Amino acid sequence: MNEIDLSVDIAGIGFENPLIMASGTYGFGKEYAEYIDLNELGGISVKGLTLQERKGNPPPRIAETPAGIINSVGLQNPGVHAFINEDMPFLKKYKTKIIANIAGNTVEEYCQMAEILGASEIDAIEMNVSCPNVKAGCLAFGTTPKGIEEITSAVKKYCRQPLIVKLTPNVSDIRSIAMAAEAAGADSISLINTILALAVDIHKRKPVLANNFGGMSGPAVKPIALRMVYEAAHAVKIPVIGMGGISSGDDAIEFLLAGASAVMVGTANFVNPAVPAEILKGIKEYFKRYKYNSINDIIGKLELN
Amino acid sequence: MSKLLKEQISDMQMLCEDVYRMKIKSEYVSLNAKPGQFVNIRCGGIDALLRRPISICDVDRENNTFDIVFQIKGKGTEKLCHKCAGEVDIMAPLGNPFSLDDKYKSICVVGGGIGTFPLLYLLKSSTASEKTALMGFRSESAVVLEEQFKAAANTVEVVTDDGTYGKKAFVTELLEQRILEQKPDIVYTCGPAPMMRKVAAIAEKSDIACQVSMEQRMGCGIGACLVCACKTKKGGNDDWGFSHVCKDGPVFWSTDVCWE
Lengths: 305, 260
Hints:
- The structure holds two protein chains of two kinds.
- Chain A is an alpha/beta fold.
- Chain A has nine helices and 16 strands.
- Chain A has helices at residues 80-91, 107-118, 139-142, 145-156, 174-183, 222-233, 249-258, 268-271, 275-290, and strands at 8-10, 13-15, 19-21, 43-45, 62-65, 68-71, 97-102, 124-128, 163-166, 188-191, 195-198, 200-201, 206-207, 213-217, 240-243, 262-265.
- In chain A, helix 5 links the parallel strand 9 and strand 10 (188-191).
- Chain A: Its EC number is 1.3.-.-.
């Protein structure tokens, strides 16, 4: 039997395998380098970047829920320039593909960041138009097809690297949003970002999070994410990157079958830093069992009843 | 450097109601753990998804073991207290430790409740000639490990909120008294935030160096997710930023923290 080929091409970027670490859960990679070989990862989408440094929201920034977490970090980051100068050199030592996740308050800010990153060595840009934790901009762009189309077509003009648009699940029809991104020139879409949620402290009669609401992730959101990835993948021709609660090889296979060309792993990294290796092992076992040789053999192979 | 480890529980003991001491066999942690550092332990189950950060209370290098002491506070620690043997999945040792410098000849630790536990390993590791432990508990039933503290310090004083054991006083009053009697070179504190804030203010007023071990809800425990924010001073002016308890802390210099 041939060696299993887990490599996957997304918008011209050759990922060694379909596992990409989800933005906001993996810092700038170096924190996890103590625990795993970053070369084993298909890619890393770095912590969301803004044009200027952001201090983020006050704590508590996290609440635990059954099989999930709700976070409200508020895009704390050193700014796009500091990332390029101080964090990129470390990441470039690895062969894993680096995706810069960007968020802004205005269309102009997104464009400026895309232009700045164009001169850097990053492999792709993931545009976050779906962060639920910051007041201005961001999420507002991502909730209507018109908003998505406007910002995507504007930012695309400044992109030297492929543009991945990260979609929010907090919409009534993900298909129309996905189609708008595609029509405006997105090279790929990734979903789902976190689901807007609330955790209540009954003793204080207040929300657990200082920012009141936050974004929910973890195994609890997986079925919702799968449904949305299925819908989006069947509405567009561009590659879809699926995420939401993936913690095992089987979880990843579910997303690939639903139509994702690659998957992102987020919350599971907090639980187990060695989880990417376990997910890859699980994917390979599945391939062996059903005698598949390539990721492309299973992408979108879910047959509805 | 911290590692992801699967280690064996060698002993488990209830110290008082809801407070447990778990002894874990680990050559790596016993050799590398510094006072003030913590382990991020997996409690298991889908309801307690995240690991729980628990500070290292004691280390036994001869037997390659270390102790964590924890209080049942929620689903994670509830699960953990039922583990009496077998394997535990830990990431350790983590975090910025207490600063132990030979120049500190006289040290004073101030602990409140479950915050007292990491101070035991600090006392044992310190080379100071004069070691004082001031500890405050809610009530007599919550007073634990006093014998171990007595063996590790020259002076140990215990007070309770309700006066059922020792004097009825706040541990911060003991510190004020102690400073009048004999001014320590450094104060280390761990416990409820209001207590630590008071300790920091007392130390600063008396021009004594002070380190505090902060607490905040954590996600990853290694500085990647940025949720365990702690407001700290930045540079020499009024600028501030959010540091992170898991990586920049849990131990901070008291004068670096923006107390609110």
